[in-house]
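Reference record
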Amino acid sequence: MKRVFLSALTAFRNDTLLSTNLKALFVLTFTVSIHGFDREYVKHAVLTNEQEKTVIDFAKKAGIKKVSKILSHNMLPSPFLGLSVQGVEHLKGREVSSEVLSISYAEWLQPGAKPRKGQIQLGNFWTGKPYTRKQTILTIDEKECRRDQYRESPLKNAKLF
């Protein structure tokens, strides 16, 4: 796999017709497939490879068996940033569920931020317990979309969405 990646990267360097954005997208796609999980980072909240390894180990200790995605997000309206880890999605009919772990990173929060009672800490990261995120797959105008399920809300009027 690495050999294929390196030869493809060499071919991209020599091809002047491909745009820089397309090259970056190709490299990012291979990076995701090599590491086995997706990344969705906001501009100013990107983890290093070492930090990603720490976050994955942390997620496993918290109960997520396999990480499928690491996400960073803005905590609007504040200037602070957040981090979450999503486990593998499980599909049962139209219902999709996955374990999600919200993680705090000291460098992205207000000065002096500390873990609360009952949270576990690993270096500059801390967290509580993961929760299960449930979504329902709906088809609207031949497009598939997902709707979060809050407190087992009924979907009697799904055609209205």
User: Anything to note?
Assistant: The CA atoms of residues 139 and 145 lie 6 Å apart. Confidence is low (pLDDT under 50) at residues 1-34. The chain is about 25% helix and 35% strand.
